[in-house]
Amino acid sequence: MSLEVRGLSAGYGRLSVLHGLDLEAADGRLVAVIGANGAGKTTLLRALSGLIPVSGGSVTLAGVDVTGYGPERLAREGLAHVPENRLVFPSLTVEDNLRLGAYTRRREPAAERRRVRDRALALFPRLEPRLQQAPGTLSGGEQQMLAIARGLMARPRVLVLDEPSVGLAPRLVGEIFAALGRLRDDGLTLVAVEQNARAAFAVADHVYVMDRGRVVLHGDAATLASDPRVTAAFLGGG
Ligand code: ATP
């Protein structure tokens, strides 16, 4: 198991948002987490990537208990986070943003970093001719590609993504999710939080449904896609 979350609780100050959440991502699987606005999806990813403290439960990454680890230590253990607002360093070039993604691998041979970079650029060929541009000059879809490519530069075992489809035209949503599917086919484990349930179901292996800080339903994507509770609330009845 790449990622195991048990009884996770977290929140902001005295506001408790996650109430004992369980989630698993098997090796080489694409797991989607869907849920209404305010269900706690972003909070889950923040807790998983060490951006907010965990108040209960545990997080295990490839058998290592990483509960309470901060972002850099988690990155070194193999977890990369692609945030929703696609935080990129605006004053640096696309190329330098990619280079910063490999920060935790800086002591590894340059040839290895180059190999990882070339693979990320092969996945998103649109980035190659734009390496010397500022990220702000990229389209929304290209910025999302950059954010994912930057996450890949850390050579993660598990990539967690916050709303990869947000604000993108349908064709680009398809392109981004197809790339996530290819990464999964190459053996990466992915956990994507997603508002766009249709896009998530099209590619995910397993889907979790969150409501008010808890998992209320989960299962194999193909099975869950025909569950009336899912079709009614998330897939618009077909
Ligand atoms: P959305 O799909 O709208 O992004 P979400 O499922 O990702 O929703 P969260 O963003 O995790 O939900 O929000 C869950 C709850 O936590 C909400 O009640 C929200 O108001 C609260 N919350 C989120 N971020 C903060 C913060 N930085 N400080 C305080 N409360 C927050």
TrEMBL record:
InterPro entries reported in the protein's UniProt record: AAA+_ATPase (IPR003593), ABC_transporter-like_ATP-bd (IPR003439), ABC_transporter-like_CS (IPR017871), BCAA_Transport_ATP-bd_LivF (IPR052156), P-loop_NTPase (IPR027417)
Keyword tags: Amino-acid transport, ATP-binding, Nucleotide-binding, Transport
Superkingdom classification of source: Bacteria
One of the protein's GO biological processes: L-amino acid transport
Cited Gene3D superfamilies: P-loop containing nucleotide triphosphate hydrolases
SUPFAM superfamilies attached to this UniProt entry: P-loop containing nucleoside triphosphate hydrolases (SSF52540)
PROSITE patterns linked: ABC_TRANSPORTER_1, ABC_TRANSPORTER_2
Molecular-function annotations in GO: ATP binding; ATP hydrolysis activity; branched-chain amino acid transmembrane transporter activity
Domain ABC transporter: from-to ranges: 3-237
Pfam families named in the record: ABC_tran (PF00005)
Assigned protein family: Belongs to the ABC transporter superfamily.
Protein name: Amino acid/amide ABC transporter ATP-binding protein 2, HAAT family
